[in-house]
Amino acid sequence: MYQHFPGDNFTAPWLQQSAFPDRDPAHLAGAVEGYKWLVGVNMTNTQGLFVDGYHIDSRKANNRECDLRDEMVYTYNQGVILTGLRGLWSVTGAPSYLTDGHRLVQAVINATGWDFARSQPVDQFRSGSLPPWRGIGRAGILEERCDASGTCSQDSQTFKAIFFHHLTAFCKPIETSNAYSADRSLTAALHKDACAEYVAWTRHNAAAALGTRVDGEFGMWWGPGLFGNVVANKNSDGIDHDAANTTDYRDEGTPVDRIWGWEPWSPGSEGVPRRQGAATIQENTNVGEKVLSRIRIRTLAGRPSKEGNDPNARGRGRTIETQMGGLAVLRAYWVLSRSSEPNK
Fold first, then answer.
1. What is the largest CA-CA distance in the chain?
2. With CB atoms 3.0 to 4.6 Å apart as the test, which of 191, 309, 314, 328 could cross-link to 164 if both were Cys?
3. CB 264 within 8 Å of CB 295
4. How many C-beta atoms surround the C-beta of residue 201 within 10 A?
5. Phi, psi (5° rounding) for residue 272?
6. What single-letter DSSP state applies at residue 305?
7. Which residues have C-beta within 8 Å of that of residue 38, sequence separation ≥ 6?
8. Poorest-confidence range of 23-32, 51-60, 98-107, 249-258?
9. Closest by CA position to 144, among listed 321, 343, 330, 333
10. More confident call, 263 vs 8
11. pTM score of the predicted model
């Protein structure tokens, strides 16, 4: 808000006194403190990726604290941090914000299974088999956890586009001229060199995305063209979907259990909890204790393919959201490759 909020333009005298001005120092202070909080609250995993956040652990009686970390990783969460960091650098001039941003970009690229030194995937693979899952992708290709199984919701189909949109904005060249200091010129040069290191990876993803087109329409999962159109499901995609505290609520909704509570939410429900029936209690005679069964919410994602062996024909198929993802990665490659040229 400090950087872009234009200020209110009320004409009534009693409203003018309560209007927010543009470049309000309180907005800048809030942004700086907000990022300090984000860094200090333990929101990144061992790969340096931002997890989805904390939620209320309903196993604790009368608990109202967001005290249980959800280890789920989505691509868009990484992207939105990047433009925030670019904005903080723009208004403070502190190079540490750009350093943190580049550290995050490199963490994402590493977690797709990309070798910076050789500008190629770290894993060798053959057609008809899936390379190993590396945390946020495989074989150097950015991927949502729902991609390979064809179970992405409308929300998740937008996420890779969001990431590449913010990466493009973060890597925008820094303006320099005689009006700026030598320190800014040095920062601009280092920033340009760092972003140039991402061009090969972005090109790799753009080429993979182009390989999914049917009648000009991009698919959601960009890997099949490289992997021989292998069709995977949640049992064979190499991802531990049952990992502790990893709930893919963006695609599957929230479960009904003692952690998430008894008011389920499903993608497309406009944020309003809907009752899908009561949780059932089963008697486990082996251990003599009651076990709450998890109730999953069925979504459109996951319906069987009716179009042969095209992995991207499953689930929601090719949509305006998947088209947006393809265009975003193409734009990112074009902008980054142009910006890395001499005298750009």
1. 79
2. 328
3. yes
4. 26
5. -100, 120
6. P
7. 81
8. 249-258
9. 321
10. 263
11. 0.83
- Those residues with Cβ within 8 angstroms of residue 24's Cβ, 6 or more apart along the chain or in another chain: 1, 2, 5
Whole-number Å distance between alpha carbons of 152 and 114? 24
108 with 78: CB under 8 angstroms?
yes
Sign of CA dihedral 25, 172, 46, 134: positive
Under a CB-based contact definition with an 8 Å cutoff, are residues 207 and 223 in contact? no
d(CA 234, CA 175): 47
Question: What is the H or E stretch that residue 192 is in?
Answer: helix 182-196
What pLDDT is stored for residue 277 in this prediction?
Answer: 33
Go through the chain and tell me how many residues it has.
Answer: 344
For residue 107, give the H/E element and its range.
Answer: helix 96-110
Structure tokens at 97: 């914000």
CA 59-65-68 angle, to 5 degrees, is 60
Written as six digits, the tokens of 289 are: 């204790």
- Cα end-to-end span (Å), the chain: 29
| Cβ pair 158, 144 in contact under 8 A | no
Encoded amino acid at 138, one letter: R
Contacts of 175 (CB under 8 A, 6+ apart): 188
Which of 68-72, 133-137, 168-172 comes out lowest in average pLDDT?
Answer: 68-72
- The domain locations on the chain are 1-15+22-41, 71-253+299-339
